[in-house]
Amino acid sequence: MVSSAWARKRPGCHWGVLLVLVTLPAVRADERPTGAAGPQSAAATTAVRVRVDGKTLTGKVRATDVASALDELGVKLSALDRVAPPAGAALPKGAAIVVTRVQRREVIESRPVPFGREFQYSEELRAGLRRTVKEGQEGKQERVYEVWCRDGKETLRKLVRENPVEPPQNEVVLIGALQTSVSRAMPRPRKVIVMEATGYSPGPQSCGKYANGRTATGLRAQYGVVAVDPRIIPFGTRLFVEGYGYAIAADTGSAIKGKKIDLCHATHQTALAVGRRKAKVYLLD
Question: Does the global pTM surpass 0.85?
Answer without folding.
Answer: no
